Amino acid sequence: MTVPTPIDDVNRPDLTPLQKASNTVGQVLKKGDIVVYESTVYPGATEEVCVPILEEVSGLKFNQDFFAGYSPERINPGDKVNTLTTIKKIISGSTPEIADIVDAVYASIITAGTHQSFQH
Predict the structure, then answer these.
(1) Which domains does the chain have, with CATH numbers?
(2) Which part of the chain is the UDP-glucose/GDP-mannose dehydrogenase N-terminal domain (predicted)?
(3) Reduced to 3 states, what is the DSSP secondary structure of residue 69?
């Protein structure tokens, strides 16, 4: 899931687009799904803001029925040299096993490689 993460007039992140997207995804979330967030947000935002929305809307339990991955967007739109496939991606998952799955997906298309980070 990649949506804009603008800042407000006092430089705080406006998570409204991310919250709305999480609500939409939560409506179709199924057991076993992995939701990967690419929007650039502060540490903890995925589990503190997005996951509760997914749980509430879907009725599913996080890390039991569905999982989350995270890979912050690192490309600059319009940059023709440093593209999605040529910039090393940082990958994380809500469990070590999910981190491995998310890493494998990105590693299959990112020629610059990936760096897996798991901290829980």
Answers:
(1) 16-116 (3.40.50.720)
(2) 2-99
(3) strand
CA distance readout (Å), 41 to 7, 34, 66, 96, 108: 10, 18, 21, 21, 25
CB-based contacts of 25, cutoff 8 Å, min separation 6: 1, 35, 54
Distance CA 58, CA 113 (A): 34
pLDDT, one tens digit per residue, over 14-31 is 999 999 999 999 999 999
Both tokens assigned to 81: 């040299």
Tell how strand 89-93 and strand 34-37 pair up: unpaired
In terms of Cα–Cα distance, which of 38, 24, 96, 106 is closest to 63?
96
Query: Could you tell me the pTM of the whole model?
Result: 0.87
What CA–CA distance (Å, rounded) separates 120 from 117? Answer: 10
The end-to-end CA distance of the chain, in Å, is: 21
Order of strands, edge to edge, in the sheet holding 67-70? 34-37, 67-70, 89-93, 114-116
DSSP, collapsed to helix, strand or coil, labels residue 91 as strand
